[in-house]
Amino acid sequence: MTAIQITDLRKTYGSINALDGLTLAVETGTVFGFLGPNGAGKSTTLRILTGLARPTSGQAQIAGVDITRRGEIARRIGYLPEEPAFYGWMNPAEFLDHVARTFGMNAAQRKVRAAELLAQVGLSDVSKRRIAGFSRGMRQRLGLAQAMINHPAVLLLDEPVSALDPVGRKEVLQAIQTMRGQTTIFMSTHILADVERVCDTVAIIDHGKLVVEAPQAELLARYTIPAYELECEPGSEAPFKAWASGLTGQPWVASVIANGGSARVIVNDLAAARSGLLPLAAASGLPLRRFEVVTPSLEDIFMRLVKAEEK
Description:
Layout: E1 2-13, E2 16-27, E3 31-35, H1 42-49, E4 57-62, E5 65-66, H2 70-76, E6 77-80, H3 92-101, H4 107-120, H5 136-147, E7 154-158, H6 166-178, E8 184-189, H7 192-198, E9 201-206, E10 209-215, H8 216-222, E11 227-232, H9 237-245, E12 253-259, E13 262-267, H10 270-284, E14 288-293, H11 298-310
Parallel strand pairs: 3-8, 3-9, 6-7, 7-8
Antiparallel strand pairs: 1-2, 1-4, 4-5, 9-10, 11-13, 11-14, 12-13
């Protein structure tokens, strides 16, 4: 089933095309990473999905409901903006009770749901502290809890960890992980390492257009560049660079990028490289510190695709 369906979505601001025919589908139950450089159209897409902005043209549905039906959409989504706002004089339990009231929950339901969510995001021990004294990471986790208060079909997250320190990022990502399976999570971000850590499926947009959309494992496999990296021991840089550059004479070597005491060997025949490269390295007599197959990262693929799109 499809949790979010976007079809030929366009949004213009004067002469600027913030979204230029965006089409994508998000499967129910997935953690979906929505990637793009700053200005790519990520926040505009989220504003349209939440009803905070209207598209110039095109269509979008959430859980089968057209986004023009704002009241119905509000009951089906949870939303965490990049900088959530709170009543600082409240404590987390009071704040979640306040949010739950807007969804018509009775007192018993509100108490149970607030306790469940505070435990899930790791804030049970501070449920009676004033929010004004919370760190940025604690506020983001409380924001996740309020976004989940109504058991949403889709949870929309706008740059949930962009301004956090490493500890805060880890805590928020762990909280997002605990919500896997409870709802479909649509996470807009430009931090690729976080997407690699938590997302099942990835879409990359640039200049308001979809560049690619695929499960993360498929994306990594599709754009894998067969390569080896070698690094020599200190003091052998000059002969190592000369030897590495000479590998271009091998029929299974596509190119060599040598930089000081390290080299990346791009190959066009991985099987031949496996049987030939290490013996050649050993025969050279050069002392090696490192020899490994390079696994491409999502960042490698992102940079490759976005640069290609810009050309």
